[in-house]
Structures are given as C-alpha cells and as structure tokens.
Amino acid sequence: MGPSLDVSVILVAIAPFLAAALAPAVHRFTGAFAGWFLAIVPAAIFLFLFGFLDEVAGGEPVRASIDWVPSYGIGLSFLIDGLSLTFALMISGVGTLIIVYSGAYLAGHPHQGRFLGFMLAFMGAMLGLVLADNMLALYAFWELTSVSSFLLIGFDHARQAARRAAIQALVVTNLGGLALLLGALMVQHLTGQWDLSGVRETGDLMRLSPFYAPVLVLFLLAAFSKSAQFPLHFWLPNAMEAPTPVSAFLHSATMVQAGVYLLARMTPILGETQAWMATLTVFGGVTLVWGGFSALKQIDLKQMLASTTIASLGLLVLLIGQGSEAAIAAMVVYFVAHAFYKAGLFLMVGVLDHGTGTRDLTALGGLMRKMPVSFVAAVLSGVSMVGLPLTVGYLAKEEMYLGLAHADPSSILVLLVVVAGNALLAAVGIAIAMRPFTGATVETPVPAHEGSFGLVLGPLVLGLLGIGVALATAWFGHDILEPAGTAILAEPVESHLTLALDLGSILFWLSLLTWALGAAVYYQLDALRALLRRADAVIGWTFDKGFDVLMFGLVRMAGAVTRFLHHGRLEVYLVVVFSFFAIALLAPWLTLGGLERLMPPSALGTWAAQWSWSDLTVYEWAVVAIAIIGLVALVIAQNRLVAILSLGVQGIAVAMLFLLFGAPDLSFTQFMVEILSVVVLTLVMTRLKLDERDHRPFEDALRDGTIAVLCGLGVTLLLSTILTGRLDNELSGVFLATSVPIAHGHNVVNVILVDYRGFDTLGEISVVMAAGIAILALIRGQRGAGRIPLPPARSERIKGMVR
C-alpha cells in the first residue's frame, strides 16, 4: 500500500473528529441545514469504504500504518478486512442518515452545533475502533466511545436522570475498558505482538497458554460491559435519557456493537474452546430471554426498543459462541438486519414523539391517516424485525436455525431459547409497528402531524434497505457475508443465502413456529405486561437499584476514608509524613548494609579523614556558622515570628552553599524561595499572635525532636554513603553529550530542567502557581469580607440554609 492510501485509510478515523470540531461553526453559518452539510463527511467515508468491497471480497485485506511510538515498535495500524469493513460501512452509512435526522430533530435548539459535534466524534471513535489493528489504538478508540457516549447521554444535563444515566454508562463501560487494556497488555506480553493480525498468526499460542483463562475473562468482561450482557445490562435502558438520534445510533451500529465486534475479532485467537463456547452461549441466551421479557413490560416506545437491543445483543453473542460456519454467517447477517431495523424504528419513534408529544404506547392509536409516511417506515422496519420473507431479518433467522438445528440435547436447548427469543422480539416489533397507527384514534398531547422531510427520510431509507439488500441476495452473500465470516473464522466461508421457501424444511417450520408464538404474545401483550410488572413489584429489587446501592456505598466509604486521613490536624499530618520519611531513609540503609559500606574496619581512617575540618576556608566557616546560628535560634525561639525568621536563616545558608560550590542558578532559586517563604508565612501569620510562645507539652517536644533528629541522621548517613561510593558519571555524560545537539542549550542544568525533566518542572511550577493563587484568593477574600458585609436578608437566608 502506498503512502497516499495509508493516509486515506487513517483519515477515515480522523475525519469525523475534524468535522466534530467544526460542527458548531458550521451550525452557526448554515443554521437548519447544518445536518445536511455535516452529513457529507460520513457519506464520503461510506463511499470511500464501499470502494474496497471488491478488493476485500477477493481475499485481499487493506492495511495502513504510520509510526506511533517507534522506539517501542508500536505503530498506528489499521486493517480493512471483511469484518471491519462490514461494521465501518454500517457505522458510516447509518450515521449519514442519523446526522441528517439530527439536524431536523434538534432544529432551533441552541446547542445543536455542539450536539452534532458530539455525534460526529462518537462516529469517529467507533470507526477507529473497528478499523484499528493495533491493540493500544483499539483501546484508545474504545475509551473514546465511552467518553463521547457520556457526553451524548448527558446532553440534557439540566435533568438529573440524564446525568445519572451518563455517569452509570461511563462507570460500567470504563470497567470494561480497564479490563480490555489489561487483557491487551497480557496478550502482547505472551505473543510479542501489538497488532491483532500478528496475534492471529501465532495460531493456538493463546489457547495453549497457562494464562488463557485470565485473558479470556478480561476480554469477556470488556465485551459484556460494552454490549450490555447480563448482568451488566442495566445501563443500556437508562441510556434512553439521551435524545432519540443518539439512541438510534448507539443501539444500531455503534457503542453496544463494540463488544460484539471485539468477540468476533477475538474468535480466531480465543475461540473454539469449551470455556469460550459455554460462556458466550449461556450469557448470550440469558441476555436474549431477559431482554425479550423486559421489553414486554415497557410502555415507553424507546424503552421497548432498548430492551429488544439487549435481547439482540445476547443473540449475537450466543451465535458467536456457537462458532459454526452457519452460526457466524447468521451473526453477520443479523448484525446488518438489526442495524437497519433498529435504527429505523428508533428514528420513527422520534418522529412519533415530535408529531404527537408522547412515546407512550398506550396513549397512541389510529395515526395511520395523519402520519402515513411514518406508518410505512414503521412497517418496513417492523417486518424485518419480525423476520418475514423478503427481508434481511428473514435471512438472518434462517441462518440461525440452520446453524442450531442439530439433534444433540444441548443444541436443541439452545435452539428453543433462540426460537423463544425471536418470538418475543417479533411480538414487540408488531406492537411498535402497528399499535400506534391502528385501532381507535387517540387524542395526543400535540395534534398529530407528519414529520418533516429530514425526519422521515432516515426511517424510510433504512426500512427500504432492509428489503432491498435482502433482494440482492447474491451480492450480499458474496461481498458482505463471505468476507466477514472468513475474517471471523480465519477460514473460507461460503454463502448459501436464499429467499426461497422450502415448505418441507425444518427451517420453514421453525420460522412458522416463531411467527405464531410472536403473534400469540402480541395478542396477550397487555396481560403479560401486567403479570410481569406484578412480578417485579413482588421481587422489589433490580440490578439498577443494586448499582445505586454500590455507588452509595462507595461514596460513603470514600467519605469515611477522607475523614480518617484528612481530618484537618496539620500537626498530625507532619508527624506522619516525617515519621515515614525517617523510616524510608533509615530502614533500607540499615537492611542493605549501609553501615558496613560507610565504615568498614579497614577504611575507618579513610572515612574519618574525609570529614576533616582543616580544609575549610574562612568564608566556608562563615556559612557553617550562619547555619548553626539559625539552627540554635530556631530551637530556642520564644515566639512564632522569630522562628519564621530563623528558618529563613537556615535556607539562606543552604543557598550560600549552592553558590560556593558552583551552582549559582540553584542558589538564586533558593534565595527567592526562602524570601518568598518568609514573606508568605509572615502574611499568613498576621492574624495570629506572633509575640507569644506556643505552649508545647514535654512529650510533644520529645516526639518531634526525636523525629527531627532521625530525619537529619538519615539524610546525613545516606549522603555520606553515596559520597564514599564510586561516582557513576554515565548519566552526566549523556546530558553533556546531548545538551547542545539535541536540546540546543549550553547550560546543562537548564536543559535538564526544561527538556529532560520538562514535565517534572512543569508540575513544580503548576504547584507553586496554584499555591500562590490560593493564598491570593484567601487574602482578597478576607479583605473583601471586611469591606462588603452581606445584606441582612441574605445573611439570614444563608444562616437558615446552614441550619
């Protein structure tokens, strides 16, 4: 691949972020047409990626890489194979329609530009995730999806429910993110590869490793948290606090599909083991049934769709766990079908909400005549969700039953679970597509009216795609299914998709059973909803409430720890800090033979000689005298002011030592620090009585004196031991050799501070700056409080609040 194509592929993941940065400005200049203008970016990405279909279908993955951290052999690498291309096409294609929809849905909203920026960043994070080959890049984009979804779910930050939902999603998915990072580091350590394509080439190395189990658990935790698998499913329904375009995008082709993608990508590396198959099948099956029944309990259309998303994610995970060619083919087809119908239905629900003012299923009815376009869009997506013939949903269902229709007991049990789950999904699909539009006309909060062109375009196109792609069965099987299945299984997969009905096949009768059960559940929907809600009331506990209890306990524990460690008694802080400082100095020195090294019997005279005082000059004696005078004055100080000034004398002595031994810049810094310290301490102490001596009990003085002597002794012994050893000039040589050619500085000390220790110096400057600002704020606050007393009424209100 040439450099230009490398840049083009990498730009696919970067372009949405650039568009996101420009979104507020675009909205400011284009107004109501901002969605149309910004949709050009995902549309261009879709067309660019669509051009790789033939190449990828021919068995030639496209790779792109640039140096990222070359010193560690880490590159920012991307891979376009059948799996990543399928996901990327769905993300960019569905994303294009949702960006257009967002412009119409939030028309007139003061923060529409910011919202569109968040949506594009969300798209960019997901595109980077599915295209990344490097595991660290995958992790970075993984976390970006969590951050961008947090911003989108909490977009209406004035509502407490939205803030809670955003925090809950961030906490749960970040837990999986940490697991993914640790798992990636373990895989790299075991295989020596950062790229997933390189890890796949190691064959069974990971499966045969003694660390297979912990790696498997980490990757499953990452995938289950992101794709809302039981019992980490509870955050997804709460994410419906986000605006409808977010829900449509998040549930169809992004975010929650990231975990499914990760499991599919890791199948050649961690799959084909009993632990893999059993875990994914069990958790996927439980999630499928749980989500299906949860959807029956809801009356809010968005909540119903959210619960069916949980069920669909469980179905995808179950199919990956089965691992057969037909099951993987079903997983790929169902992913495409689900993206089409779920995005279409969510967008249609947004149209209903706009056009009627409610999403309550029981408060809607008879809208067919007033909202005919929405009705057609709902039916088109609904038939695919039910899995009727001539839809992609039908192809997916047929492939599922083909992969699971085996005679062994475990396969029969899994097949029954899938049939039951599909029937529940079919019932909910019928309810959402039909109930709001049929039956008696119900008066709605807003007079029912059809949505604008920007609102109805997305649902209509997605509904038509659910049928059109199915009709192009041969193309779909050859260009989408086969490359994606081959990438997942690491072996050729052959498509046998067909729309033909074989009345004598077991697959047809399983489909018929599914439709019959779905219709039966739909006709008993109200009764089943009432029964399930009564069961919830009896149980009285949910995973969502459990999360609240856990977070409340975490906050309480953090408060208790904070009160224990940060009690506000400065004296105790200093005693603890300097006690551990003395231990840190003396314990290693004693246990590692510091005494023998400092004073070996044969070298006692040599050691004593180096402490000879006869070589000191007059001015060096003067510095020693200043230090001793300052020390004595500090110890016998009768009041705080004298103690502060005496402490400054000690600092001046240290600064003069720096000056005498060839470090004038350090000396100047020390002078400034000492002068500033004395001035600041004096200013802070002005509100205390500086002419009085602090009364200190004898035991306190003995304790503090002992700690001070131990700290001084530890520093002295450590430095003496270092001076008696061999001076290693290797690091100094590096600084001297590279100071001018690399850092372009002749003052080596400055180069060390600014370049080699740049972040350390920046941190020190930041601390000093923050301390100075805090002190200035305290001084100004005290003066302001003295000049501007609070009005009596406001003072009384504040006292009342405090009480």
From TrEMBL:
Which keywords describe this protein according to UniProt? Answer: Antiport, Cell membrane, Ion transport, Membrane, Transmembrane, Transmembrane helix, Transport
**Record-annotated membrane-spanning stretches:** 6-26, 33-53, 73-101, 113-131, 137-155, 167-187, 207-225, 246-264, 276-296, 303-321, 327-352, 373-392, 412-434, 455-476, 506-525, 572-592, 618-637, 644-662, 668-686, 707-727, 761-779
InterPro entries assigned to the protein according to its UniProt record, in alphabetical order: CPA3_Na-H_Antiporter_A (IPR050616), MrpA_C/MbhD (IPR025383), MrpA_C/MbhE (IPR046806), ND/Mrp_TM (IPR001750), Nuo/plastoQ_OxRdtase_6_NuoJ (IPR042106), Proton_antipo_N (IPR001516)
Q: Is Transport one of the keywords?
A: yes
Please tell me where this protein is predominantly located.
Answer: membrane
Domain NADH-Ubiquinone oxidoreductase (complex I) chain 5 N-terminal intervals = 71-115
The residues covered by the MrpA C-terminal/MbhE domain are 702-785
The NADH:quinone oxidoreductase/Mrp antiporter transmembrane domain covers 132-417
Give the way it sits in the membrane: Multi-pass membrane protein
Does this entry carry the keyword Membrane?
Answer: yes
Limits of the MrpA C-terminal/MbhD domain: 626-689
UniProt subcellular location? Cell membrane; Membrane
Report the protein name in the record. Na(+)/H(+) antiporter subunit A
Query: What Pfam families does the record point to?
Result: MbhD, MbhE, Proton_antipo_M, Proton_antipo_N
